[in-house]
Structure formats: structure tokens, C-alpha cells
Amino acid sequence: MVCGGFFCTKNALSALNILYVLVSLLLIGVAAWGKWFGLVSSIRVVAGVIGVGVFLLLVAFVGLCGALKHNQVLLFFYMIILFVVFILQFSVSCACLAVNKDQQNHLLQIGWSKSNETQRDIEKTLNCCGFSDVNYNGSCAASCFNQKPHSCETCSNIIQRYAGDVLRFVGGIGLFFSFTEILGVWLAYRYRNLKDPHSNPGAFL
Asked: Which band of pLDDT confidence, cut at 50, 70 and 90, is reported for residue 121?
């Protein structure tokens, strides 16, 4: 049977949603692992990553059930949800690839000011203190802060060395997955309009 047939489309849609299940479990596992080993102390960051993983898992579950049962309602809602996710993810990915240095610095400054827990995580991980200046009369989670003589570097300098590469990487990964999502929409649309050869010949499911 050619790849445009019923069973090939069903298998392709099922395989795509199994991939989404694996990615969602990976997101949940990495977030839980980071929190368990103390790599990330911010509850909001962990909860956000786990929330994205759970949402993706639910979408994949809907798509997988719709593919296996050839359920028109599940496939319809799967198409709608996946298309909305595609628009959002494609927009964010393009923004990540288009942001310039000044915009990066502004966004980093906003993110830095949002959470003290995130600040401590960054200072501890990158061994830096403060965003744009080091206050040796304050506190800092970096190991360099307690060394004599003081040799701490500001976190903005370290982050900006890698921010561009990270944003391009995130944008590229986001674009890749956004195209898999539009592929999922197309497969679901095509699959909904295909007749199951094992069903009643007079029925169109």
C-alpha cells in the first residue's frame, strides 16, 4: 500500500505522537531531576517545565487515541490544539532568532529581577555575582565571592557570551518541532478524511 493510504497515515500519526510522548516524559524527568539534585531551586521554573511536559503529554495522548480509534472528534480537537501550539511556537522561535543584543540584555535584566531563587541558581551555576555589578557588601551564592582576593565576574557578562548561541539553538529546535506540529495537523486532517478499509463499505468514518 502506498504511503498515502489509510494504514500508512495512521502509523505515521501514531509514531509522531509517540515521539511527543517521549519528549514530554523527558521534559518532566529533567525538571524533576534538576529539582531533586538541587540544580534548580525555583519552584516556578520547575513547575513551568513540568506543566509544558504534562500539556504535551495530554495532547499526544489525544492524538494517539484519535489515531488508533480513528475518532473524528478526538482528531478534530487534536488538529485545533496542535495548530494553535504551532502558531505560538513558530512565533516564539522566530523571535528567538531575530532578537538583537540590546533586546537580549533587556530581557535578561527583566528575567533577573523576577526571582531571587533564579538569581541564586545562576550565581551558583555560573560562579558569578550580580547582574551588572558585584556588591561585595551583600551576599552571593557563587564560590568566588568568598575567595580572597575577590575575582567574581558579573553574571551579565557570562550570560551574554552564550545568550546568542542559546537563543539560536532554542529557536532552531522550536522551528523544527513547529514543523512537526504542522505535519501532525496535516496527517490528522488527511486521516480524518480517509475511509477505514476494515469498516462497513457503506460507512464513511
From this structure: confident
Q: What is the phi/psi pair of residue 153, to 5°?
A: -105, 150
Say if CB 174 and CB 96 are below 8 A apart: yes
Burial of 137 (0-12, 13-18, 19+ CB in 10 A): exposed
Q: What pLDDT, on a 0 to 100 scale, did the predictor assign at position 43?
A: 67
- Contact between 100 and 88 under an 8 Å Cβ cutoff? The reply is no
Mean pLDDT estimate for the chain: 81
pTM confidence score = 0.72
Q: Is the dihedral of CA 197, 198, 203, 205 positive or negative?
A: negative
Identify the burial level of 193 via C-beta atoms within 10 angstroms of its C-beta, where 0-12 means exposed, 13-18 middle and 19 or more buried: exposed
Q: What is the dihedral of CA 146, 151, 157, 159, to 10 degrees?
A: -40
